[in-house]
Amino acid sequence: MEWQTFIEHQPFLEHVPPGLRKATECRKAVAGEMLFRVGNPVRSLFCVATGEVQLVRHDLRGTKIILQRSRGGFIAEASLGSKAYHCDGVVSETGMLLCFPLAAFRAALEEDAPFRNVWMGLLAREVRKLRAQCERLSLNGAAERVIHYIESEGIHDAITLNQSRKAWASELGLSHEVLYRTLKRLGEQGLLRIDGSRISLVRESNDGDGAREPTASKQRT
Length: 221
Known about the structure:
about 220 residues
């Protein structure tokens, strides 16, 4: 893949200065590959062009929790300021990666103000996303996590899954059996409308006949 092809997948990359581009490696990442493990020294910053990479930890019960899932964009951005990784980086779907040498990336941020400003904006968006995920994982009930996910990640109270439900369960910190039962129960209760990969909340309407109709919320930013 040429650099312009990467930019088409990730417009942010257009702002990467020429010197950093020359130092960057493009490579294929194969599903199941471990990019890094907890405690490994940080030497590169990874950007996912195609495929999927996950940051993974396991709770005391052994349940896999996905802290970050990238199907396009940077993964483990916080490693830029760390000496070692605090979680595992796993390739969950074969694709292409850009590997930025850590020292070269830091130098580009120091020397190129426009690039630094764009990077700060990207980090701000990621912080908002991770804050919502932390809040979601603090919820005890499976139903509450499902509804919170749709409200925080969806548009107009609906999401279209671009991953398997088993992978979604891991992202929610649930077993896939619990997620399937929860979706079924919420559907039977009339709280969710499930149409293939599209899942939407159904809210109470005030039309006077007691029927439930989906109520569009404002698009989330």
